[in-house]
Fold this sequence. Notes:
Keywords: Cell cycle, Cell division, GTP-binding, Magnesium, Metal-binding, Nucleotide-binding, Septation
GO biological process, one term: division septum assembly
Cofactor: Mg(2+)
Pfam families: MMR_HSR1
GO molecular function: GTP binding; metal ion binding
Bound molecules: guanosine-5'-diphosphate
Amino acid sequence: METTKITSAVFVKSSESLKQLPKPDKPEYAFIGRSNVGKSSLINTICQRKNLAKTSATPGKTRLINHFLINDSWYLVDLPGYGYARVSHSMREKFSDFVREYLLKRESLVNTYVLIDSRLKPQKIDLEFMEWMALNNLPFTIVFTKTDKLSNNELTANLIQYRTAMLAFWESMPPQVITSSVSGRGREEILTQIVQYNQFFKSQK
Length: 205
Ligand code: GDP
């Protein structure tokens, strides 16, 4: 029986095109968000490794999709950050073709974790990205990051703002996890979800 314990976490490869990706023979879980949202920190916290994902974008590496093999049984996938452009343009300009193609075509992708900085008011680019995911029937979980930086009241107020912004065009909210890479809050919840999905993935094979 698979548990949420991390026994091994290994960097496998960086890919810059669909054909370079590892064989789609294991369930995989993608992590995406605006640059500086806390993605590398969260990946390191989830895997209990200090430097598995490098914190703060390395120039030239930002367009690559990175695969990490966890417990020899599933992939954690670090997607390039989005939202460098200040002005809102079309989706085509904001998300690289590669990331869009990956999300649309990767057959072993089970779920995507969309990271949102809990300290900020709802950001147009995050809302647009999630809308694009939903329109394409791609399942995802919202992950609020850096929640240790807020008081409980501030956090609640910001979560309500997000809820209001999303329910303006959604019928219901997608699943959400509240996280902090400093305290480890939310880590177990994400891993529990992944283990459950893994079982489902195996049963489909
Ligand atoms: P990335 O660009 O999305 O990979 O973001 P990083 O993981 O490099 O984090 C950006 C900055 O936010 C760094 O200075 C981190 O130390 C800080 N940070 C990330 N996650 C947390 C968190 O949960 N709590 C706090 N207090 N700081 C965080």
